[in-house]
Design goal:
Length: 415
C-alpha cells in the first residue's frame, strides 16, 4: 500500500519499500511490479520524488527503516535524484548495521557496472551533487550505489518485464515467509542435535513424507532446535514453509488458516469456517507441492490430526516437524519418528551460562564456584541458563548469592 493521505509514511510497517525515479519507471515497470505485489497480499510502500508534499524526508527514511525489504529500481536517471540517493544511502547503512531491510536491486536499463560507477553514466550526476552538497555527501551516495551494485539482483534489459516481475515477487514472498534463525542468542551444544534431527528427516531423500516429533521438558531447547532445522531446510522448499509457534495457545481454525496461507502460492487465505474445510484446503495445496511445516508446542494428539489431516495426501518430499513436552502425543500410526532433546552436559551448560552472565566462554576465576552452583541448580536447562545468566550480568556477589538461594528453594518445575 502507499502511504495513507494525510499521514506519515511510518504509519505502518511495510513488507517492501519501493525506491525509483518517477519519470523513468513510475507508469511502466514499477507500476506493474507494485500492483502485482499488492495483488499477492504484499504490503508495499511506493515512493517517488514527484509525490513529496513539503519536506517529508524524515517520514520517508522512517518508512525505510520500518520495511523488511527494499527494492531500488535503478534506472538511467536514478542518480540524478538526490531523493533517491539519500534513501539508498539510508537503506545501505541500516542493512550494514542491523541486517535489514534486505536489499533486492533491479537494474532496469542500466548494468551493475554502471551502478558501480565504472562507466560514465552516473558520473556527471554525482559531480553535480558534489558541487551542490559537498564531497562528503557525494562519497556517501557513491558508496551506497557501489554496495547495491554488488548485490545479486535482476537485470531487465532484453527481458520481458512480466517474467522479471514474476521472479521478483516470488523472491519477496520467499523472504517474507522464512523465519529468522535465533541469532540473538548464543547457540551452544546444538550442532550434534541438529545433525541428528536432519538425519531422521532424511534430508538427502526426496521420496515420501517424513515427520519427526521433537520432545523434552520445558525450557530444554526444543523450539530453538526446530527453528534452526526449519531455516536450514526452508530454502529448498520454494517458499512453501510454515512455522506455527506455540500452537497450544491458538484455536484450530487460526492454526489451519495460517498453515493454508503459508504453503499457498498466494498470501490470501480461504475463509473456511470449520476444521474439515481447513484440512481439505491444506491437503489440496500440499498434494501438488512439497511443503515444510513446523508445529511448535503441541499438547494434544487431536491438534496434530486436525492440523495435518492425512499425511498420505501430502506430496512426496514434504517434511513435518512438531515440538512437544509430551511424547505420548506423537502418532506412530502416522509414521512419526521421535527425537528426545538431550540435557546439556556440565561443560556446555557452563559455557552457555557464562556467555549470558559474562559475555565470555567461561566464568572468571572469581565466579567459577558460584557459576557451577547456578548451573547445577537449573539442571542445565538452556532457557533458564539464558534468563538467569542475563539477569546476573554485571551484578554484585550479594545478588548472585540471593539468586542461588531462590534456585535451591524453588521446585524443579519452577526453575
Amino acid at each position: 500500500m502507499e502511504a495513507p493521505c494525510g499521514s506519515g509514511a511510518s504509519a505502518t510497517q511495510y513488507d517492501v519499500f519501493l525506491s525509483f525515479r518517477g519519470p523513468d519507471t513510475r507508469n511502466t515497470f514499477t507500476d506493474c511490479l507494485y500492483r502485482t505485489m499488492v495483488g499477492q497480499g504484499i504490503i508495499a510502500y511506493r515512493d517517488s520524488e514527484e509525490l513529496h508534499a513539503g519536506d517529508r524526508i524524515d517520514d520517508l527514511l522512517t518508512a525505510v527503516g520500518d520495511s523488511k525489504i527494499c527494492i531500488p529500481v535503478l534506472s538511467r536517471g536514478y542518480a540524478s535524484s538526490p531523493w533517491c540517493l539519500r534513501k539508498l544511502a539510508r537503506v545501505t547503512e541500516l542493512n550494514e548495521s542491523t541486517g535489514k531491510p534486505a536489499i533486492l536491486p533491479i537494474f532496469f536499463d542500466v548494468t551493475p557496472s554502471d551502478v558501480k560507477v565504472r562507466t560514465e553514466l552516473y558520473v556527471e550526476d554525482l559531480e553535480k551533487h558534489e558541487r551542490r552538497h559537498g564531497s562528503e555527501i557525494r562519497q556517501r551516495w557513491e558508496a551506497a550505489l557501489r554496495k547495491v551494485a554488488e548485490i545479486k539482483g535482476w537485470e531487465v534489459q532484453g527481458k520481458a518485464h512480466g517474467e522479471v516481475i514474476d521472479l521478483v515477487v516470488k523472491e519477496v514472498l520467499h523472504k517474507l515467509k522464512v523465519k529468522q534463525r535465533p541469532l540473538d542468542t548464543k547457540l551452544v551444544g546444538v550442532d550434534e542435535q541438529v545433525e541428528a534431527i536432519m538425519k531422521l528427516l532424511d534430508d538427502d531423500s526426496s521420496t515420501g513424507v517424513r515427520s519427526v516429533g521433537i520432545h523434552g521438558m520445558g525450557g530444554i531447547g526444543k523450539t530453538t532446535l526446530a527453528k534452526i532445522v526449519f531455516n536450514e531446510l526452508c530454502p529448498r522448499f520454494d517458499g512453501r514453509c510454515s512455522f506455527i509457534e506455540d500452537i497450544r495457545e491458538q484455536s484450530n481454525t487460526i492454526g489451519l488458516k495460517q498453515l493454508a496461507s503459508d504453503i499457498s502460492d498466494f498470501r490470501f487465505i480461504d475463509n473456511f469456517s470449520n476444521t474439515d474445510e481447513g484440512i481439505h484446503s491444506i491437503t489440496r495445496r500440499a498434494s501438488s507441492k512439497k511443503v515444510l511445516v513446523v508445529l511448535d508446542n503441541l499438547n494434544k494428539k487431536e491438534q496434530l490430526k486436525k492440523l495435518m489431516g492425512r499425511l498420505d495426501a501430502f506430496c512426496s518430499g514434504g517434511r513435518i516437524i512438531i515440538t512437544t513436552r509430551d511424547k505420548r502425543i506423537l502418532d506412530e500410526e502416522m509414521g512419526m519418528l521421535a527425537y528426545e532433546v538431550k540435557q546439556m552436559d556440565l561443560d556446555k551448560a557452563l559455557e552457555l551460562f557464562a556467555w549470558h552472565a559474562f559475555r565470555s566462554v567461561s566464568p572468571p576465576d572469581t565466579h567459577q564456584s558460584l557459576s557451577r552452583e547456578v548451573v547445577s541448580s537449573t539442571r542445565g536447562l538452556p532457557l533458564a541458563l539464558e534468563v538467569i545468566g542475563s539477569s546476573l550480568h554485571r551484578k554484585g556477589t550479594k545478588i548472585w548469592e540471593e539468586m542461588l538461594e531462590r534456585l535451591k528453594k524453588a521446585p524443579h518445575n519452577e526453575v
